[in-house]
Amino acid sequence: MKILILGGGPTGLGAGWRLNELGHSDWEICEASDHWGGLSSSFRDEDGFTWDVGGHVLFSHYHYFDKVIDSLFSSSKGWLTHNREAWVWMENRFVPYPLQNNIHLLPEKVYWECLEGIIDIQNRPASALPEHFGQWIHATFGRGLAKWFLEPYNYKVWAYPPSEMGWSWVGERVAPVDLKQILKNAVFQEDDSAWGPNSCFRFPAQGGTGAIWKEIASTLPPGKTLLNEKAVSVDIHKRQVRFEDGKSRDYDVLLTTLPLPDFIRMAGIDNVSVGLPDLKYSSTHVIGIALKGKVPEKLATKCWIYFPENNCPFYRVTVFSNYSPGNVPDSTTQWSLMCEVSESPMKRVDATTVVEDVVQGLLNTGLIPERGIIDHTWYRFEEKSYPTPSKKRDRELFPAVLELKQNNIYSRGRFGAWKYEVGNMDHSFMQGVEFVNSVLGHADEMTLWYPGVVNAGHPAGGKR
Predict the structure, then answer these.
(1) Alpha-carbon distance values, 448 to 54, 57, 267, 420 (Å)
(2) Which of 52, 295, 326, 444 satisfies CB 3.0 to 4.6 Å to 335 for a cystine?
(3) Phi/psi at 445 (nearest 5 deg)?
(4) Phi/psi zone of residue 256: left (φ > 0), alpha (ψ -120 to 50 degrees), beta?
């Protein structure tokens, strides 16, 4: 069985890893770019600063993935382990994430509005299922938290109003509201920041997140891992893929990690929900800020910060030099921030001014004291960054994925499967592994078809 894999991100490399592990020899991975990792790649700029394509952290829902990651790099010195410090900047103060557990740190008026909304939903729970994510927010957190944080923040991060999104994806992605815990934190003036599947994560000492995927690719047989091989058309009847250099490759089974609508157009499959209009996505402008001096004390232990307010364009800032001293040339005299700005047809961004807008936002929020400490900036735009869980996503997604399977084509990965709820690096890698297991008759694809089961078994809950 000849298995051809399009895409050298976590999903494609996961499939290659498993095929190699099982001794199945007839396969190839074709990656269009000149590097491995896809959206999990890293880049080193001309001045020696390392940047990721957004704020990635490595944590796992799977024993199998843990074993693979543990096998990478020559020693434990290859990894740095961090206890997550995530914060929200609002009302001119840092509040530990999740915000809903720490609302006692907000101004009294805001605190009461949030608490009143929580009490209201405890007394009058919703009687019907929500129609969209916005309704889910109000029914789950109350009108105060919706007004002050969840609605403005989710619009900034998704670039779509919550009313345009479904809610079935939420699962472990949003911290639940716990009135008893909220009141306990307020009475005893305790901060609560331990919630979440990524409360502890690791990061490569050198090379950024992309070092993980470069290392995995390096362990695979070199003749089967091909860079600069861009697919341009697919003949689903002949089971043949043609590439930009004019060469063609035959397959028995095709794994594609390309964005699903792009692949369908490339393959000329007119009968599969033409254009898939409800498979929406957001783009991301990533702006790296290389800074002179030392990390200020207020940011010295922070990992990343969320920004719901409109005095800055970014929704998240990562103190990237805190992830590893290797992310800057000299950690004693340099540090770095990595800022993310979302875009969609419902939230436009001016690419010609976004870097300057970000710098001004950093000044507005006090993350940097003045422009003089900026050494230089780095910029990257990702057209397809996050698959949006839109309201009608599943009714278009599932028929398309299943019809492709009838033609021995498997669409997997963050944009191949278009399921944000299983779009982390571990999820994506395991989609590739489980594709192989399924095709070779070993097991079902749990991650793709049962995301709730996979995510419920997180080690933070004592199970896997």
Answers:
(1) 24, 21, 22, 11
(2) 295
(3) -90, 90
(4) beta
Indicate if the pLDDT at residue 382 is higher than 80: yes
Reply yes or no on whether the pLDDT at 461 is more than 70.
Answer: no
CATH class of 3-38+208-279+390-461: alpha beta
User: What integer pLDDT is reported at residue 441 of this predicted model?
Assistant: 87
Q: Helices 425-439 and 63-70 sit at what angle, rounded to 10 degrees?
A: 110
On the 0-12 / 13-18 / 19+ scale of CB atoms within 10 A, 440 is: middle
Dump pLDDT digits (tens) for 64-88: 999 999 998 866 568 998 888 999 9
Please choose, from the candidates 445, 459, 413, 359, the residue with its C-alpha nearest in 3D space to the C-alpha of residue 14.
413
Question: Across the strands, what pairs with 235?
Answer: 240
The SS3 assignment for 288 reads strand
Angle CA 76–80–83, to nearest 5: 130
pTM over 0.85? The answer is yes
Return the DSSP state at 10. H
DSSP 8-state symbol, 58: B
- β-pairing, 316-318 with 304-306? antiparallel
Res 161 pLDDT > 90? yes
Give the C-alpha separation, 434 to 428, whole Å: 10
Q: How many C-beta atoms lie closer than 10 Å to residue 170's C-beta?
A: 16
pLDDT digits (tens, 9 = 90+) for 389-410: 999 898 889 889 998 999 999 9
What is the residue extent of each domain of the chain?
A: 3-38+208-279+390-461, 98-187
Q: Rounded distance, CA 151 to CA 203, Å?
A: 31
Cis peptide before 98 (omega within 30 of 0): yes
